[in-house]
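Holo model, S-(P-nitrobenzyl)glutathione. Inputs:
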Amino acid sequence: MTPTITAFERSPDGGKGLARDMRVRWALEEVGQPYDVRLVSFSEMKEPAHLALHPFGQIPTYEEGDLALFESGAIVLHIAERHAGLLPDDANARARAITWMFAALTTMEPPIVDREVAKLLEGDETWYEQRLPVLEERVRDRMGQLSRRLGDADWLDGEFSAADLLMVSVLLRLKRSGMLGQYTNLSAYVARGEARPAYKRAFDAQLAVFTAAFTGR
Ligand code: GTB
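Output:
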């Protein structure tokens, strides 16, 4: 059965692949699962039909027959568990990969999002200039720790897995800040992820939505 995911009708990131449907598209592309996309506007996300799928009125969602999921990490895990290629077969290696998936979403992503939200929503506040260095320091702490652990390995734990897919997706949010460039091995790690054919297909698909929305083509 072909799953359907939701994505922004007009992504605020300008098609840079930073909205969270991108990680779900990437996972589906990695495992070779075709999918449909239903585009939703900001107002549609808050209407009952979408809230029935996503209690917080956000994207992405994932529908497959009777199953409806939200939360990008849970969706990627679901895809990885049902298809070969995104999680190791060995039980311990699989548990470690899932650990890294959680690390990407619950240890790395929150300080990165906090910094972004402050820049976006609190830039005019009187205390912003004092707060920004604190938020950036928290991001750097995590990046330093991750950088030391990754060392010169290609991926987090052996072969590429759903853990790398999520970690690269999270780190990509830092690219335009210049912070990623300060960690040579993390920059190379992200570039390895972006170079994967499945990543490129997913990126092109989300960019096509943005281009169509703004040019009508
Ligand atoms: N924890 C959830 C998950 O991982 O699925 C978070 C989902 C989420 O934040 N969705 C966002 C959303 O629907 C889109 S991705 N927001 C609408 C709303 O809350 O009303 C977040 C996002 C948005 C924009 C950019 N950007 O412009 O760069 C990047 C990321």
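The domain at 91-196 is CATH 1.20.1050.10 (Glutathione S-transferase Yfyf (Class Pi); Chain A, domain 2). The beta strands are 4-8, 36-40, 61-64, 67-70.
Archived with the compound record.
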